[in-house]
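Hello again,

I reread your note about wanting to compare the complex against the isolated chains. To keep things tidy I'm splitting this into two emails, and this first one only covers the full assembly. Below are the input lines as submitted, including protein chains and any nucleic acid or small-molecule components. They are followed by the predicted structure of everything together. The single-chain runs will come separately.
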Amino acid sequence: MAGYLVQRFVGTVPVLLLISLLVFLLIHAAPGDPTLMLLGEETNAAEVAKAKAQWGLDRPLYVQYLKFAASTLTGEFGKSFKYAEPVSQVIKARLPATIELAIFSIIIAVVLAIPLGVWAGSKPNSWLDNVGTTFGLFGISMPSFWLGIMLILLLAGVLNILPTAGRSTYGVAGPETTGFYLLDSLLQRNWKAVWDALTHICMPALALGVNMLGILMRVTRSSVLEVMNEEYVVTARAKGLAEKNIVWRHVTSNALIPVITVVGLELGTLLSGSIIVETVFAWPGVGSLLITALNARDYPLVTGIVITYTAAFVVINLIIDGLYAVIDPRIRY
Amino acid sequence: MQSLTLESATEKTPGLVGRLAPRLHTKAFTGGLIVLTFIVVGILGPAVAPYNPNKQELTAMTKPPEGIGSLHVLGTDNLGRDVLSRVIYGARVSLLVAFAVVFISGFIGIGLGAISGYFGGKTDFAIQKLVEVVWAFPPLLLGITIMAFLGQGLFNLILALVVQRWIPYCRVVRGQALSLRTREFVVASRCLGARNAQIILRHILPNVIQTSLVIGTFAMASAIIAEASLSFLGVGVPPEIPTWGTMLADARIYISTAWWLPLFPGLCIFVTVLGINLLGDALRDLLDPRLKRAGSGI
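Full-complex prediction:
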């Protein structure tokens, strides 16, 4: 299996290179001059020429790409036009916020979806199943950004129990060590900051996780339904095991394989979803950074973010492939 | 095993209507009704909308909904534009984009999938590499990037959404074509001298259309959400065209003062997508009896 994974990993390199070329060409084919965007309309020709020379925009396209590809290989992606810092550093500073939000969303989705799916699937056509199925259908049909807005309206606006935006209240969080506010606050035993971070993250995480919740619930349900007909379940029943044990020990562990696949597949959707949910909640992550960078036509930053997202997506898929074999020993590569 | 499958197959073919279980019936009916309502409203648009969606009424700015029979049933926005009229026009754009995306991507995906699976070899390799590269982008990210750089516009929007959406069709159809090309009826027609194009059109495509129909239904739901997302981020259609996504984006600033502004367009997206998903579920249960027997699919 290690051989297969290495082969897969090597196979992703040309894919990533092609993607970088695609993004690079797309950006350069676009209308809109970045120098004018950043310097404003009232600059003179000399200033524009100076800025172009400084950013290397006056060089031929292939030179720009080679330079870009070289800096991509070192993981630096060049210097951001807007922030005047290496792109990798700008992204690195924002990455913990996005990862924290994504992890929290997955936790919410998994913790709610799996029990609900197992209950629904083990008692098909019961009232619990009907509630679960409706819930799942609502989950997959819900536009995450609308749910976000409605949550803000209700929980922050009308009930005033949660903050509307951001990651923390100013001055509450201690010094950053990992960049993950929850983890930092826990390590520092700053309980006020832990609570503050939790109140900030729960709305965006729920909005981001709702689609995954719906899909996971439906997949768990159908997977459980399928496993319930297996012979070993009949055997377990014949042995006189309590239904609760059958469902939670024999059925659930076997029904989770497709669920894990779907978690992996949905991570990509979650990553894209983070762009829009971060914008709704002014969450200072990579997603909202992408929108800022796009509006400023900050080429290196946009390319850096797109490649970071894509690389993350590719690596996640690779890990999920590896995980199958661990979970299901029948799968061999 | 063979005889078992045959038996159950003969048992399970009491015709299209007979196959619709009562529960399935409710799903198909509810979903169909919702989708049909929005399609009719979308088509009739100008005839049923009480106002021009872009008409600003400065004397009636940010008016809350006053109920049926009043001047502005769903209220007005910050510029005094009638929310109901804008929601109706929004249905038009959303459904138009979604239909266009589903048909174009279906056409490309089914075509490439059939070619890839039927011919195999180098053609298959090339097409599958393309699939791999395009599929490596997280969904929506490619759309956002394309739109941001090509600029707002209906045509660009459809293009940006099609770029990745042909892939599910292509993958599934390729798999089916791979197995179909070795089947007796395909081999037989090749022996009779049928050309490749003829075989693909007459024998491969009719056999993959059912599955593609199910994929298409779910793709439509995702296209509506994607269109709204892009418009919400300001990279979708130009601001003068009212869509549900742009309405939501405009409403963001007024969340605390005008609850009806984000409520109605979002509700429309949600209900339409819900209807399409219900329809998709029903269609899949109907076309895939294996799943139906296990309950009602996922």
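For quick reference: Residues 1-12, 291-298 of chain B have pLDDT under 50 and may be disordered.

B.
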